[in-house]
């Protein structure tokens, strides 16, 4: 019997392991698989870190694949191990403990790194990102000892962090450079409704503010935040939620083509055909995706090629957004801002806290922004993705898939 091919996966997160799961369905015996994970945990659902922060879930609840799963599939999992170099000529990866592991195929799933604002004091004790379970544990621990939390960034992650810390009893201020919350995901109307509903939960918003410095006390821990206009606010914990950037350093060091992310083709191959890449570390047709649906679509295609079926193509994704804050329903997808050559249908029931906006171009739905009632979000995404003509649906489009037309 010939020896199995060796597949090495760098990254034990959602994209890398989903690719392995898809591969095991297609070709369970093709490879000896080794997975490197920089964290001490098995694969967990990073999307559910927000409910862990609020206390609605535990780490145990969000584990996707326990140790048994790796053992059952004969996968060698190397935890707390970082890959530091790739030797493409010899086809080996080198880990931080000096070991070298040979590969026939390599899958890079190194994810993304949180952006840290390069302001003075960004490295003080008590300044954290919101990226992994370690960050969440630090935030939970701080909430038991301190009072003032400041979240920098009014995007999805920032609001989820702020909501979680408020749920744990902290006084929370959200500092955001823009004039409205979630300015990349919502229009002004929906953002206003969201702000009012979060303020009712006790969150404080400082919009249009630029952080100039983070100030520390004698003990080396953060104590305050200073804005560009000179104002200072107290802070015992600062959470930076100002976006992520693809973690493509490893690919760059071994000479792969990198343009922000690791550049891949429609088959998720890098410029070295033996090396594939999926997830947030990837740049595909100029886009890096930070949401889970595109990562799973990429995983399917990469697995198809690793399994030597060779027929899958990834052509990009229609992305949609939800906020994981219990009791607040919002959703946006596609080109919800509208603009020239588009028409917009809106329904606003401000007292009822419901707002819906649909954007149509050339008799096709191209975008949706929903607040307060998101029941039909999956239907709208399907219509946007399929690009089907909607003239027959127009009268009931706003009222959802189940309305009329029977």
What does this molecule look like?
Keywords: FAD, Flavoprotein. Pfam families: Pyr_redox_2, Rubredoxin_C. It comes from Achromobacter arsenitoxydans SY8. Its cofactor is FAD. GO terms for molecular function: oxidoreductase activity. By secondary structure, the chain is α/β, with parallel strands linked by helices. The protein has 3 domains: 5-113 and 244-306, FAD/NAD(P)-binding domain (3-Layer(bba) Sandwich); 127-240, FAD/NAD(P)-binding domain; 329-399, Enolase-like, domain 1. It is built from 10 helices and 26 strands. The strands form 7 sheets. It has a 5-stranded parallel β-sheet with strand order 3-2-1-7-20, with no helix packed on it. α1 packs parallel to α9 (292-306). The protein is globular and about 70 Å long. The model has no long low-confidence stretch (mean pLDDT 94).
Question: How is this fold's topology laid out?
Answer:
Layout: E1 5-10, H1 14-26, E2 31-36, H2 49-54, H3 59-62, H4 67-72, E3 76-78, E4 83-87, E5 92-95, E6 100-102, E7 105-108, E8 112-114, E9 127-129, H5 133-145, E10 148-152, H6 156-167, E11 171-176, H7 188-199, E12 204-207, E13 211-216, E14 222-227, E15 232-234, E16 237-240, E17 244-246, H8 249-253, E18 258-259, E19 261-264, E20 275-277, E21 282-284, H9 292-306, E22 320-322, E23 330-334, E24 343-349, E25 354-361, E26 364-371, H10 377-386
Parallel strand pairs: 1-2, 1-7, 2-3, 7-20, 9-16, 10-11, 10-16, 11-12, 19-21
Antiparallel strand pairs: 4-5, 5-6, 8-17, 13-14, 14-15, 18-19, 22-23, 23-26, 24-25, 25-26
Helix pairs in contact: 1-9
Domain FAD/NAD(P)-binding: 6-302
Organism: Achromobacter arsenitoxydans SY8
Protein name: Nitrite reductase [NAD(P)H] domain-containing protein
């Amino acid at each position: 019997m010939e020896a199995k091919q060796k597949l090495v996966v760098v990254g034990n997160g959602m994209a890398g392991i989903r690719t392995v799961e898809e591969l095991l369905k297609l070709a369970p015996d093709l490879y000896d698989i080794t997975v490197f994970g920089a964290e001490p945990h098995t694969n967990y659902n990073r999307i559910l870190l927000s409910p862990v922060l609020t206390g609605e879930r535990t780490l145990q609840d969000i584990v996707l694949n326990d140790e048994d799963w790796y053992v059952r599939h004969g996968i060698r999992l190397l935890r707390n191990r970082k890959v530091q170099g790739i030797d493409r000529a010899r086809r080996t990866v080198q880990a931080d403990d000096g070991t070298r592991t040979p590969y026939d195929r390599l899958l890079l799933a190194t994810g993304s790194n949180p952006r840290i604002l390069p302001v003075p004091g960004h490295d003080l004790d008590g300044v954290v990102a919101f990226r992994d379970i370690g960050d969440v544990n630090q935030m939970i621990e701080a909430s038991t000892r301190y009072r003032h939390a400041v979240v920098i960034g009014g995007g999805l992650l920032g609001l989820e962090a702020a909501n979680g810390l408020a749920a744990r009893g902290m006084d929370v201020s959200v500092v955001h450079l823009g004039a409205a919350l979630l300015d990349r995901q919502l229009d002004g109307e929906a953002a206003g409704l969201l702000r009012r509903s979060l303020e009712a939960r006790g969150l404080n918003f400082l919009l249009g503010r630029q952080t100039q410095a983070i100030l520390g006390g004698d003990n080396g821990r953060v104590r305050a935040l200073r804005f560009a206009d000179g104002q200072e606010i107290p802070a015992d914990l600062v959470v930076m939620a100002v976006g992520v950037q693809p973690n493509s350093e490893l690919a760059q060091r071994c000479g792969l083509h990198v343009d922000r992310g690791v550049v891949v083709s429609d088959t998720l191959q890098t410029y070295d055909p033996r090396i594939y890449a999926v997830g947030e570390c990837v740049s595909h047709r100029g886009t890096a995706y930070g949401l889970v649906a595109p990562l799973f679509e990429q995983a399917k295609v990469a697995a198809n090629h690793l399994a030597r079926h060779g027929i899958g193509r990834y052509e990009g994704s229609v992305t949609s957004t939800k906020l994981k804050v219990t009791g607040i329903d919002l959703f946006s997808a596609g080109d919800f801002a509208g603009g020239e050559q588009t028409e917009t249908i809106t329904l606003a029931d401000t007292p009822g806290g419901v707002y819906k906006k649909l954007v149509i171009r050339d008799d096709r739905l191209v975008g949706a922004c929903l607040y307060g009632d998101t029941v039909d979000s999956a239907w709208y995404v399907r219509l946007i993705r399929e690009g089907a003509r909607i003239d027959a649906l127009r009268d009931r489009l706003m009222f959802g898939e189940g309305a009329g037309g029977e």
